[in-house]
Amino acid sequence: MSAPTSTGSRLDRVLERLKLILGDKLLSVVTDKKIVKLSVAPEALVEAAATLKEMGFDHVKGVTGVDLIALKQSERAIELIYHAGSYLDNELAPYIVNLSTKLPRDNPVAPSLVKIWPSADYHERETYEMLGVIFEGHPNLKRLLLPEWWSDIPPLRKDYKPPGRE
Amino acid sequence: MGSLKKIQMTEAEGEEREELYVYDTGEGLVFSYGPQHPGTGHFRLIVRVLGDTVLDVEPDPGFVHRGEEKMCESKTWITNIPHLERPAILDSAGILYPYVLAVEKLMGAEPPARAKYLRALMAELNRIGSHFYYFALYGVFLGLPTPFLWSFGDREFIVDLVQFIGGQRITHSYFVPGGVRNDAPSKVPPRLVQHFRAWYTEATGKRPSESELTDDFRKYVLHVTDFIDSRLDYYWDLMLDNTIFISRTRGVGRLTPEEAASLGAVGVTIRASGIRRDVRVDEPYDAYADVKFDVPVFTEGDGYARAVVAFREMKESLKIIRQLIEGMPDGPFKLKQHPINIRVPAGEAFARSEAAHGEMAYYVRSDGSDKPYRVRILAPSFRNLIVIPYTGRGKRIADIPVIYWSNNYWPVEWDR
Fold first, then answer.
1. B 227-266 residues with CB below 8 A of A?
2. CATH for B64-415?
């Protein structure tokens, strides 16, 4: 990489580079204090993650799936969020990047980011069993916490009603 | 691991042909480490060995999975607090902390100064209690039961303090959005002080006068920190300076800084691998901006370094508690008494804190109602889980307990 041309902080340079690489596949950038929320198109997820990793976000703190159906009926989607952070870069360490994308609820398929972030391994497995998101290219995509005999719909989807609750 | 395989039997004259299926595990022997409480909590490691060498070790969590995240969606913002601290009862303040911070972010609420100090005080007391647990079971895992008895004896004085402040020994539901549930007391029971006096003299060699060690809460807490400080030196001699302990843990489960960072490890694991990361310093929350302390870091990255980091962290926590007690401001301890069904403005929030086991984070989302739309619990033990298969390969069977426990795991916490 050539010498940085921007006078802004490290984080600004990361965001500039992301805008440059992803173009209009980077849907939105919202910065709220130490949290940066990036929304990307599903096909740009791998590129965005690789860029973040290259710029210093070396691990993920977790992977969250949110079933949006009860929030907005028209949006039949599952939001997938990677919470990325940095250990080795002192300037980026206080920041958390929430890299999010929306997957169709009927066929939620996302590329696995384990090759980029090995720390996402078990988190992706948990999102797979709890929300039914299929991670393509995951080395060992099988159940983690749920019992092997579980045959109901993924339990963190909004249409799953826990027995005895409702 | 493995697949079902049919074995061809040689047929004896006149006998009925039998079909035999075995579970083919490939090279080596596969056995199950757990799940019936192999030390702490129910979990299982599927271990493949060849002789005494571990070829592969795979964690199999989920035996105590209770669906906390789903449960959060059917309870209100306030009634979620008691069950969210259950996954790690030994550190119930630490595991709940970021939930309260995240809800406050959504509400735009800022707790009063005294609440911030009380919260930090509670979190540090819980950290010491949790690290006592760590030493207790580290000893048991290695066949050294004395630290178990010592730790639980000394932890009682910490648990007593937690009880005076929060009303319960372990699961106190002390933190609420906008402050803490109740104020710290000004006095402790005089009978307890009398009981403590003898222990204090035995550990420190000092005889406090009647005016130095009274039933005044602040004075009592300061004396307890002195007492724990002196007691920790005994632990150093018993465990950390013990040749057998050192030979069992040194070089076991080693992680370089790059490996620890790429695996996203937390807590004592990264700090023993040379990464100086502690949320209390990186992104100070509540009263941590006002206190001074060191973040102990070692570069060996093995089971021994992790134990020493935990030991030094306890000393640092004692330093923090003294500063919090001396600098504790007066004033209200919460913004207002919330009704049990408060409505939280719609939006999303991410908050993190440093729990005893490592970095603890919550992602919460609200649709504006009295119940959360989604609560994601990012527990430190879960993030450290990946360290077991990574560091276990090529080690010996007797190293598995060290690899497992040195990372400060808690099975109920990763299962949630």
1. 257-258, 260-264
2. 1.10.645.10
